[in-house]
Amino acid sequence: MNTSVSQNSRVLSGMRPTGLLHLGHYHGVLKNWIELQHSYECFFFVADWHALTTHYENPAIIAQSSIDLVIDWLAAGVNPGSSTLFIQSRVPEHAELYTLLGMITPLGWLERVPSYKDQQDKLKDRDLSTIGFLGYPLLQSADILIYKAGHVPVGEDQVAHVELTREIARRFNHLYGKEPDFEEKARAAIRKMGKKNAKIYNDLLKRYQEQGEAEALEIGYALLDAQQNISLGDKERLRGYLEGGGRIILPEPQALLTRASKMPGLDGQKMSKSYNNTIALREPPDSVEKKIRTMPTDPARVRRNDPGDPQKCPVWQLHEVYSSDDIRQQVIEGCTTASIGCLECKQYIIDAVIEELKPIQQRAREYMDDLAGVENIINEGCEAARDVARDTMEEVRKAMGLTLR
Ligand code: TRP
Ligand code: SF4
User: Fold this and answer.
1) 3-class SS at 398?
2) C-beta 50 within 6 A of ligand 1
3) What are phi and psi of 267, to 5 degrees?
4) Per residue in 38-49, pLDDT tens?
5) 370 C-alpha vs ligand 1 centroid, how far in Å?
6) Whole-model pTM?
7) 47 Cα to the center of ligand 1, angstroms
């Protein structure tokens, strides 16, 4: 059953504040965010509570990293005029939703999330047998559901978390979406659409419920999206009614899979802090130069006049990101005939990376010189996020029997 709210084009994503961003983040994540902010309402946040799940023993870096993270986003081109930027811990409603969702989340669902065991095995030096770590994906679900996000841009490793979020939303709606007078309210809402639309809706309802026609469901969604004279609550009710369930309070999000970041690191593996093969967005030009000059190359090219094979060289992978066809052609030609040296070949990359980082670093400096301005952006973002989160929590409390009226 597809219970995602297709009209919901809100995008939400978060990053943990665990250090300065590097080119892997830029090519793999941030360019995508920057693209998305043109077409969607975007919420991007610093997942500082998530950082604490693994870094609870040395929290000192979290506050500074949070500001640095936002500065790096802004420097890379995330636009605070079109996106809402905020910090998770400043919207405490996330914790309330996490607690309430915890009531309905079977332990097995969390124990089965692949990252739970994987990370425990990987981070052997830390004790991750905590409630916080087990609850990591549930907290992420709360982050997503509290904004009723339709799309969650994430990498491959996070897809299971979005999948869990969908299951939790489904369970929540199943348990609490059925108001005592659901049927009556749904019928009343149908009438409010007017005679003609009510008839169309009822026909589609029949086609879907009796014949299972998936197409009728899709047309029904579109019909509801187009209604101007019924409330959002009624629309959600009628979606649920059409599907044969209750009202959808928490819509199911979709993962927006970021195509696997092809950004190679300095050693040819994926660029990642844990491989120690990164170039930071704030890397000074002389350090960029040094790092690239000392990159390993095709091991067969021991001497300058030994021919090489770009396919066996990590520098080549960077040419695939940065160089024009023309330069690439010259490199293949030059490498395989030993007519260019590796330093010459690397110089193209050095120039391209420094050029790419120049405007980013310029903007980062401007923001670092105006920390009050950055704080303003964050404060405004937190306020805007809280407004949305508060509204959702009101509905959730009501659905779960926590309001007196
Ligand atoms: N777990 C994500 C990561 O490690 C960060 C994150 C936390 C997140 N909450 C989220 C991402 C909500 C998307 C949506 O990258
Ligand atoms: Fe690698 Fe370039 Fe040297 Fe060839 S010339 S081995 S592609 S660095």
Assistant:
1) helix
2) yes
3) -110, 5
4) 999 999 999 999
5) 28
6) 0.86
7) 7
